[in-house]
What we know:
Chain A is of the alpha/beta class. The first copy, chain A, has helices at residues 3-8, 16-38, 53-69, 84-96, 115-121, 133-140, 151-162, 182-191, 206-210, 262-265, 279-298; strands spanning 12-13, 43-49, 72-78, 102-105, 171-175, 195-199, 215-218, 236-239, 243-246, 254-257, 271-272. Helix content of chain A is 41%, strand content 16%.
Amino acid sequence: xxxxxxxxxxxxxxxxxxxxxxxxxxxxxxxxxxxxxxxxxxxxxxxxxxxxxxxxxxxxxxxxxxxxxxxxxxxxxxxxxxxxxxxxxxxxxxxxxxxxxxxxxxxxxxxxxxxxxxxxxxxxxxxxxxxxxxxxxxxxxxxxxxxxxxxxxxxxxxxxxxxxxxxxxxxxxxxxxxxxxxxxxxxxxxxxxxxxxxxxxxxxxxxxxxxxxxxxxxxxxxxxxxxxxxxxxxxxxxxxxxxxxxxxxxxxxxxxxxxxxxxxxxxxxxxxxxxxxxxxxxxxxxxxxxxxxxxxxxxxxx
Amino acid sequence: xxxxxxxxxxxxxxxxxxxxxxxxxxxxxxxxxxxxxxxxxxxxxxxxxxxxxxxxxxxxxxxxxxxxxxxxxxxxxxxxxxxxxxxxxxxxxxxxxxxxxxxxxxxxxxxxxxxxxxxxxxxxxxxxxxxxxxxxxxxxxxxxxxxxxxxxxxxxxxxxxxxxxxxxxxxxxxxxxxxxxxxxxxxxxxxxxxxxxxxxxxxxxxxxxxxxxxxxxxxxxxxxxxxxxxxxxxxxxxxxxxxxxxxxxxxxxxxxxxxxxxxxxxxxxxxxxxxxxxxxxxxxxxxxxxxxxxxxxxxxxx
Lengths: 302, 302
């Protein structure tokens, strides 16, 4: 094999930044058209309980993205020691507010609160995170359509679609089964008629199934867990892991690392998302797109 | 190999009839206790639209089973040409009726009716079929509990549990993805920490994945599709197929055949359900058990 052949065999990098930016500009254009036509704009509200630095920073990223495309965003902050009923009261008010089309309850919630009970209260028609069981059930069931699909999972499929990657009849392996990625992406892949296997911490020899997969989507939270020799030659890899790893050479002595050992996988896969710059930017653009869709539905604006 | 060794290697038959009967007698005993203690009994209502012979016969089987255990059952019949609103009106009345703890809308409905819309109206707390998307979503999501799990899927797991078959860490293949068996059983197997692959009509070489499976659950509707050489030695096979096959030697010139080629599979599997007499009787007992659970919840009877 010559050096150039070896280089040819490196996976193409799925550039989430540019795909995310493209979606954002489409969303922005639609919002402009909405404002011009009916004088309305989409509204997103984030409910933030307690003072977690990571949550603050996630909320800031979301609100900044809203600003950029013309979504009116607001955050309702509650103290860490508030009661469940107080949170539910806030969510109920947002349900009633006709200027709000998307409601996010920023997770994780303080441990004394019953998150499932609170998420149940979010109006499924404003549930832009797609975490309401009614939306998850409608996603699972043939012939039904959820109001919203969880953003990161929708982002994975968007990346595959925009790269023209066929799902029908392909073997897909999903590693991890969270409501954020693993569960909804396994349901979405099935909607696209892939043959889906879901791998998790109890799976024996996870590499055996993974090695048969044309499409691998990982959401584990263990840096570099998926090695090059887990992958079939030519597989497409979407890495939803965002693991902070110590790195003395970086600012804050941390860097982001995916679940996939990128440098090995890039030699085997045909296409792969980097971390950062892969799924992340697309996920946030899906949130904007979900909020726009919700406003369009509320105003019957087509 | 001696003849007796060959015989030893035949799968043990999972006798759904006796397991179903055992569950039924447990349900009957609980209902007796309920009547004795609080003077109440569970109530099941079936909504039947149009005059389909197969539906009539399914409804008759369900109502007879209700009688046997002490569930008060009733059927509301509507003409084939009734409107969607008429069906919804009937369902809404049953939702309000405190003597009714389970509501079944017998499927299939006439084509001019929107089944999804009608099933949405069934109160999820009376949805003993488990087909409401809120129940399916709660089944899919970790940390949530549905009010009801679809009876046939619950029956498959009940058979595995009663036979002491370990699911945790086992490879399971589900063939078919209907809301009746495939979808909910794949979610249930995941709850029991099996590694689940879902196979369907677009899957290429379905036998490859199936041959790796410790547990195979089929719900395809194609008689004898799963051959002996699809199975791993020692696999456990649950056959949810009930296919009417022409047979001149039988009454009505028909016999029931599963999706699995039983005579071949029985040589390879370690345990297998026959058709008929496998999943069927357990499914009906799950319906009775769901209805009892609902009445217990309604009357807070423990």
